[in-house]
């Protein structure tokens, strides 16, 4: 079955691998990015690029309503390109998982309540803002009847880990393929690991 999929975080490492796979399966994909410089990339991958910041709630609601998705696929993170700076981004990443995710849920409610699938992690985060944000994201997605995509640590080209990290882990291409395969899963947590 073909779906209309609103992909938030489309220009990220997994988003760029998802778009061609989704399009190949016959889905219509709207790829959201906050970076004007990445809209051409998303178009070249096969998505209808939407320039929107998840923290601009009114614009996000309008973008989602205008696309009329069957599924909202939340792959949003706010992480640095340099893994050594990841600690500096903890508050920003936590915000995108809480406020950003809530804005997506609100946009879904105002546009016919499409199913929500959202990225999470398959390992225990240390106590702190990121762990609290992940817990909040998971609870809010499940409360909407959505699906939590609990990924192992990504590895492979373009990720922080060129070589295999410790378990739980998942190759970025396998993560993307499994995501496409679980679009119609019932509400719950889907663990995506090697």
What report would you give on this structure?
By secondary structure, the chain is of the alpha/beta class. The protein is 38% helix and 22% strand. It is built from six helices and nine strands. The chain has helices spanning 15-24, 39-45, 57-67, 90-109, 129-143, 172-181, and strands at 4-8, 28-33, 48-51, 71-74, 115-121, 147-151, 153-155, 169-171, 188-192. The strands form two sheets. A seven-stranded parallel beta sheet has the order 3-2-1-4-5-6-9, sandwiched between helices. A two-stranded parallel ribbon has the order 7-8. Helix 4 packs parallel to helix 5. The longest helix has 20 residues, at 90-109. It starts with a strand and ends with a strand. The mean pLDDT is 96.
Key words describing this protein structure:
single chain; 194 residues; alpha/beta; seven-stranded parallel β-sheet
Helix share, percent? 25-40%
Low-confidence stretches: none
Q: Sketch the topology as an H/E string, one letter per element.
A: EHEHEHEHEHEEEHE
Helical/strand content category: alpha/beta
Number of helices: 6
Mean pLDDT: 96
Distance between the termini: 26 Å
Q: Judging from the principal axes of the Cα atoms, what is the shape? A: globular
Strand content: 15-25%
- Radius of gyration, whole Å: 15 Å
- How many runs of DSSP E, i.e. beta strands? 9
Strand order of the largest sheet: 3-2-1-4-5-6-9
The profile of the biggest β sheet is:
7 strands, parallel
């Amino acid at each position: 079955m073909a779906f209309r999929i609103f992909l938030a975080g489309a220009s990220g490492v997994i988003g760029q691998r998802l778009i061609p796979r989704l399009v190949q399966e016959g889905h219509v994909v709207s790829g959201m990015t906050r970076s004007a410089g990445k809209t051409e990339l998303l178009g070249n991958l096969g998505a209808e690029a939407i320039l929107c910041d998840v923290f601009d709630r009114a614009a996000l609601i309008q973008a989602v309503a205008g696309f009329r998705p069957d599924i909202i696929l939340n792959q949003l993170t706010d992480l640095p390109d340099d893994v050594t700076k990841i600690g500096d981004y903890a508050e920003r990443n936590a915000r995108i998982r809480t406020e950003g995710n809530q804005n997506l849920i609100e946009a879904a409610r105002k546009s016919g309540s499409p199913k929500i699938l959202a990225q999470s992690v398959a390992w225990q985060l240390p106590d702190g803002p990121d762990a609290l944000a992940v817990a909040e994201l998971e609870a809010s997605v499940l409360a909407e009847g959505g699906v939590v995509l609990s990924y192992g640590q990504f590895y492979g080209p373009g990720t922080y880990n060129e070589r295999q990290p410790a378990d739980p882990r998942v190759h970025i291409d396998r993560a993307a393929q499994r995501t496409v395969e679980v679009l119609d899963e019932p509400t719950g947590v889907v663990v995506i690991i090697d």
